[in-house]
Amino acid sequence: MVENETGHTGDVAHDDSRRLGVLISGRGSNLQAMINAVAAGSLDAEIAVVISNKQGAGGLDRARAAGIETVVLEHTSYVSREAYDGALVAELRRREVSLVCLAGFMRLLSANFVRAFPHRILNIHPSLLPSFPGLRGQDQAWRHGVKVAGATVHIVTPELDAGPIVAQATVAVEQTDTPDSLAAKILVLEHRIYPEAIGVVLDGSWRIEGRRFLSD
Ligand code: GRF
Predict the structure, then answer these.
(1) How many Å lie between the centroid of ligand 1 and the Cα of residue 12?
(2) Are 78 and 84 in contact (CB under 8 A)?
(3) For position 197, what pLDDT does the model report?
(4) Which of 23, 24, 25, 30 to mutate for ligand 1's pocket (most ligand atoms within 8 Å of CB)?
(5) What's the CA-to-centroid distance between 2 and ligand 1, angstroms?
(6) Quick one: pLDDT at residue 16?
């Protein structure tokens, strides 16, 4: 058993459930990549529910088109972050979700939410973490003038964009790139590595040492 920075042991109990709960706020292209990977058989998982904190999120239509249950939980209806996160946890538990995937979910999650799914929340971020956490990582990277950019899938901890890194992919930044063209290149990477990383985490042959994610 290994104590790590996330406050949990590295020796995580894995179950056989492969039920995903996907949280979105917007267009849902990463959700679509998961839907496609499940349909193609490259990701052995079931998307049990898609939850959005925004009524008009485009990803809701993608989920409905794929026959996936959708839930809209608007944070504006709750008095506090804790109350909202408690409702989210309840919706996810009701559907026996074993892995929570943040896919453009534009809300900070409370420590209580993170504790409800220890090592069982993933996020995709459009930069090579730990560089450029927070909003619009692609723009931050472009403005900084980096020559290599990329995407990161990480385990979610209470600290923003700081959990153990499961997967990363890189792309060269050309002088002709604009923030939009760079974001488009990074998005291609996201759509590849997120379903792959979900598969790795579901397969369960991994551990965390310190803050290093190690898989067999
Ligand atoms: C992606 O760039 C992702 O990295 C970030 O939010 C964006 C969501 O895009 N966390 P989409 O809704 O999956 O298309």
Answers:
(1) 28
(2) yes
(3) 98
(4) 30
(5) 32
(6) 75
SS3 76: helix
Q: What is the mean pLDDT of residues 33-37?
A: 98
Q: Considering only CA atoms, which residue is closest to atom 10 of ligand 1?
A: 104
> Residue 149 C-alpha to ligand 1 middle, in angstroms?
15
State how many domains the chain has. Answer: 2
CA 128 to chain CA centroid, nearest Å? 14
Q: Kindly state whether residues 104 and 60 are assigned to the same domain.
A: yes
d(CA 8, CA 1): 9
* 3-state DSSP of 103-147: CCCCCCCCHHHHHHCCCCEEEEECCCCCCCCCCCHHHHHHHHCCC
Ligand 1 atom 8, closest CA: 104
Express each pLDDT in 147-156 by its tens digit.
999 999 999 9
Instruction: Report how far ligand 1's centroid is from the alpha carbon of 148 (Å).
Output: 19
Based on the fold, state whether residues 136 and 111 are members of the same structural domain: no
Task: Kindly state whether residues 17 and 96 are assigned to the same domain.
Answer: yes
The range of the structural domain enclosing residue 97 comes to: 1-118
Token pair, residue 186, equals 């990074």
Ligand 1 cavity residues, CB under 6 Å: 24, 26-30, 59, 103-104, 124-126, 190
Catalytic site residues? Answer: 125
Residue range 8-33, pLDDT digits in tens: 433 344 457 899 999 999 999 999 99
Residues 44 and 92 in one domain: yes
Do 111 and 142 lie in one domain? The reply is no
Residue 15: per-residue pLDDT: 59
Residue that terminates a domain, selected from 66, 98, 118: 118
Percent above pLDDT 70 for the chain: 93
